[in-house]
Amino acid sequence: MNLCDIKTIKQIMAVYGLKFRKEFGQNFLTNRMVVEDIADSCCDGRSGTVLEIGPGIGTLTAELAARYENVIALEIDKSLIPVLAYTLEDFKNVRVINEDAMKADLREILSPYFEGGISVCANLPYYITTPILMKLLESGLPFDYITIMIQSEVADRLCAKAGSRDCGAITTVLSYYGTAEKLFTVSAGNFMPPPKVNSSVVRIKLYKDKPYKPKNEDIFFRTVKAAFEQRRKTLPNALASGFSELSKETLTSLIVECGLSADIRGEKLDTETFVALSDKITKAIAANHA
Ligand code: SAM
Which residues lie across from 60 on neighbouring strands? Predict the structure, then answer.
């Protein structure tokens, strides 16, 4: 069965009485080469198990199942479950779970598979790309890679260099957990129905041992968030909005102590500098409470 074939997709949808659900970001891949490329490159052959978020009708799932030991697929749309039982019936190494990836207890689902190595591979629904990525990164689960198809604009942000125009809070947060590389771009014509934007595949390699060790992780993330939330403001002004417990004068002197100019903007800082600055903020907050 060729799940990339538009006629086959239409037939399956008709037989099961389904419509593409916009609210679930359902844009199914129709180009076999793209699907194979994603499956081939998603984890460098390192992981035995792949978690897929949003299998749809099972197009990518089948390619993953042909290459990896186990595939765990989380699908929110209940009406796709009987379709997946049919399209994936030949694969005994696939477990489909009808759950919202945002609510699922990933540790409980995935812990039996940790030993053989685990990665994530997904053509993500665009309405929820960043929350899902943040959940995966913050989960603390031992993923080797997270490979995701996302809107090209978001892909550029994830892979941006510190200080560049595309850089955002998510760029710095991601660089804390691992390194991102854009593998390739996929135009809208390779999906059914075609989305309004082009997509790109980004592969994130997660650090086994993070090179950055902030004294207080929460304050590190607060520093990054504050710096980018008010990105048109200078860093002291942006941080003053995010850290009401410290005065703007204190924040300015901490910025200067890091060897930065007081009128710098947050987007110019690299991850290491954010860690150094957040450590100083952590110390200043502790001193305030002393
Ligand atoms: N993997 C298929 C493909 O590449 O053709 C479908 C990808 S489609 C862009 C996104 C899929 O994610 C849909 O099947 C949709 O129902 C599912 N989905 C949307 N939100 C989800 C969520 N919160 N948790 C799990 N699956 C979700």
Answer: none
This model's pTM is above 0.90: yes
Q: Which two tokens stand for residue 249?
A: 């004068």
**What is the distance in A from the centroid of ligand 1 to the CA of 24?**
6
Q: Whose CA is nearest to atom 18 of ligand 1?
A: 54
In the chain, the N- to C-terminal Cα span, in Å, equals 68
At CA 197, angle to CA 189 and CA 43, rounded to 5?
80
Does the CB atom of residue 191 touch ligand 1 within 6 A?
no
Strand order in the sheet with 70-74: 94-97, 70-74, 49-53, 118-123, 143-151, 199-206, 178-186
Residue 202: closest CA among 216, 185, 214, 217: 185
Distance 123 CA to ligand 1 centre (A): 7
pLDDT tens digits for range 97-125 = 999 999 999 999 999 999 999 999 999 99
Q: Is the dihedral of CA 114, 120, 125, 127 positive or negative?
A: positive
